[in-house]
TrEMBL record:
Listed Pfam families: adh_short_C2
Molecular function GO terms recorded: oxidoreductase activity
Name the record gives this protein: 3-oxoacyl-ACP reductase
Species classification: Bacteria, Pseudomonadati, Campylobacterota, Epsilonproteobacteria, Campylobacterales
InterPro entries: NAD(P)-bd_dom_sf, SDR_fam
Length: 249
């Protein structure tokens, strides 16, 4: 039982690997013995992560485009073998008032947050490329609230949740699973910068609304590893909120 969470025979793809939640997920999966392929735009950050891990490699790719995803997946399978799971952390935020929405920018948000995830899943949905595939999509805790000026971002994350439900039967045909994680406020490099310009009153109010306090990247990484691993073999089609109790406060 001591080795039940060892993943040394598993190959996982993690997008958005160069920072924040994706980076932490790579490090934790590597610690558990998995072979991890991180994908992101910033090669210098990926090289730094490679130095911190034992069994990590990377590919540089910008998910604003879908055209190169098939070649990306094929190159990973050719070099490393069949994929056991994929977690999609790649994403871009968008804060736009309804009156000032730019449709071209909105489409870019959907390209990165949704359409590239869909194309990646499409290309992994192949018995020649994956085995017992587990997919984890990173949505957002804002799905459970109404927040002004977040319509484009929230809609792109909501589309991921719809995909989780829609693809359950397709993936199950080959023993595959799909779930999404809805993180609430988590301390990352991005939120740390925002904290510096927020008022002290706002920061105190933010902490007060989380019974278990503000989350860390490791909290999401732990749940991601569980959902990717065989320990969650009977869990699929679920949208799992991780919010320190914020949703019921």
């Amino acid at each position: 039982m001591d080795n039940v969470f060892q993943l040394k025979d598993k190959l996982y793809i993690i997008t958005g690997a160069s920072s924040g939640l994706g980076r932490e997920a790579c490090k934790f999966l590597d610690l558990l013995g998995a072979k991890v392929i991180g994908i992101a735009r910033r090669e210098e950050r990926l090289k730094e992560l490679q130095d911190e891990c034992k069994n990590f490699d990377y590919k540089v790719y910008d998910f604003i485009n879908q055209e190169g995803i098939k070649e990306l997946v094929d190159s990973i399978v050719s070099e490393y073998g069949k994929v056991s799971g994929m977690a999609y952390f790649a994403g871009v935020s968008d804060i736009s008032a309804l009156r000032s929405l730019n449709m071209q920018e909105a489409k870019k948000v959907f390209d990165i947050n949704f359409f590239s995830a869909l194309e990646l899943i499409k290309n992994l949905y192949d018995k020649r490329k994956s085995q017992d595939l587990s997919i984890v999509l990173i949505s957002s805790g804002s799905q459970l609230q109404s927040i002004s000026s977040m319509s484009v971002y929230d809609s792109s994350k909501g589309a991921l949740n719809a995909l989780v439900v829609s693809l359950v039967k397709d993936l199950a045909k080959f023993g595959g699973r799909i779930n999404s994680i809805l993180p609430a406020h988590v301390e990352t490099e991005m939120t740390a910068k925002a904290q510096e310009i927020r008022s002290e009153e706002y920061n105190q109010e933010l902490e007060r609304t989380y019974p278990l306090g503000i989350g860390n990247c490791s909290d999401v990484a732990n749940l991601t590893a569980f959902l990717l691993s065989p320990l969650s073999r009977w869990i699929t089609g679920q949208k799992i909120s991780i919010d320190g109790g914020r949703g019921v406060y």
